[in-house]
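dumping this here so i dont lose it again. seq + smiles for zinc ion
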Amino acid sequence: MTDVRLTLATEPAYPDRPNEDFIGATSNAVVLLDGAGTPAGLQSGCSHGVAWFSHTLGSTLVAGITQNAGPLTEILASGIKETAAQHDTCDLDHPGTPSAIVVMLRRTGDTLDWLILADSVLVLDIIGAEPMVICDERESIVGKRYRGPMNEAIGGTPQHSDALSVYISAMRGHRNIDGGFWVAATNPHAAEQALTGSAPVDQIRTAAMLSDGASRLVDRFHLATWRQCLDLLEHDGPDVLIRRVRAAERSDLDGSRWKRGKIFDDATAAYWTFA
Ligand SMILES: [Zn+2]
């Protein structure tokens, strides 16, 4: 049996609100989800909420990855189907039904398999090469069309909240359709749209999985490179990475330096060492 060296940390955006991220691990797999929030005033057709959805789907995927040695897309499709069945009387066709970004990473013998659906980030530290950054960009590409008014509003103001709601409503029209972007919600076919890949584990030193609330230190705030991010995870751990994100968020409470929909965001980071 191989030793497993895995560290992880997760923190909600605000201490009094549920964490819509999910992180779960077995001795040979990690599953990370980032639930897509429903701002106040928008309907979702679901009585359970986003945190329920991401945690239910996440724990279903952890069970699935333990029981099923098949492709990760197959495990994700089954997980989406099983979670949909637990919604009871909720309106599963509602455009605002809870959804989540999914990252799955599994070691089987000498092989590492991954799956990414939507814009969380997987960084692989390949031995003798630059870090390999895997992210599904479709949501952010579609989002660029609608971000303008939100970027112009001052963070923390009612105008900014209104602009965020308008943005999310517009994005719902592009969710889980061809030409738009794909997330895990109630349609199991979304799993086929995930980015997947494999590599021999002896070529990979470490892997970092980051929800977009954690990866923003690099890809939105530009306060570190991916290499520096891996070094920070290696030497200080995922909790220190999240603390660095929080310090940056607090230093820019109106979002004037770094335009963003969420001034604070749920943040999750996991770091897995192989070599
Ligand atoms: Zn529901």
